[in-house]
Structure formats: C-alpha cells, structure tokens
Amino acid sequence: MDPRVSSYLDHARRVLATGRRDDAAGLERQALLIVEQLPDGREERAAVLTLRATRLNASADYAGALAATLEALALTVDPAAATTLRLEEGRLRLATDAGAGRPGRPPGGRARRGPARRTRSRRRTGGR
Question: How far, CA to CA in Å, does 47 sit from each of 19, 77, 108?
Fold first, then answer.
C-alpha cells in the first residue's frame, strides 16, 4: 500500500474514533486523490472504500455503507479481507431490510397485533 494513502487512512480512523465524521470524510477524499494518481491503486481504493463503509455505518447510512462494502469487495484480492467484507456485507444487508432488528414487525413498519380488543369505553348504567 502506498504510504501516503496509508497515512491518510490511519489519520481518518483516529479522527473517526473521536466522532468527527466530516473530518474523516475529508481525509478519505484526500486519500482518493492520491489513489487516482497511482498506476494500480486497487488495494488502496479498496481500503478507502472500507473506511468509507465504516464511516457511513457510524452515521447509520446502512445503504451507503453496503454500496461501499460491495465496491470494496469487488476490488479485494486478499482472501482474509474478502471474508471480512462478506461478513460485513451480510450484516449490512440485514440492517437495510425493512423492519430489521424489530421482531414482529412487517415491512410496513407497524407492529402486528392480534384480534382487536374491545375496551370498556361505555359507562355502565343501571340494568342496560
């Protein structure tokens, strides 16, 4: 990996760990500018996209994180990194499904309920 890209990514990870997502996004852009100048920046681009997926996941943008993960997976040649990305892909696919993480909820988002219950809204009157 190119040392300049690695430096930007390390710095972006540290910044992201402190919760400064916008600053981390700026560092990602800087790293991508360097990647575009490299003759074969496949590994570097995959690393930037993996970091982007992590940042978007922290921002609860699961669809964006999934897209970045899939793009990084297409560029990855290392079997261990590919396995990690495939696991992340599966987790993000679950997170982007409608109603995920909320058992008993259909895709529309409303909770399933049993038969309607009658409530005692009428006032009881003497023999009626």
Answer: 20, 12, 36
Q: What's residue 60's pLDDT?
A: 86
- Tens of pLDDT, residue by residue over 107-125, are 444 444 555 555 555 555 6
Tokens standing for residue 42: 């496949």
Classify residue 102 by its DSSP letter. Answer: -
Helix (H, G, I), strand (E, B) or coil at 101: coil
Whole-prediction pTM value? 0.68
Q: How far apart are CA 100 and CA 53, in angstroms?
A: 19
| Residues 54/25, Cβ–Cβ less than 8 Å | no
Phi and psi, residue 122, nearest 5°: -85, 140
Cα–Cα distance list, 18 to 8, 10, 74 (Å)? 16, 13, 29
Query: Could you tell me if residue 99 is left (phi over 0), alpha (psi between -120 and 50 degrees) or otherwise beta?
Result: left
Residue with tokens 């978007």: 56
* pLDDT number for residue 120: 57
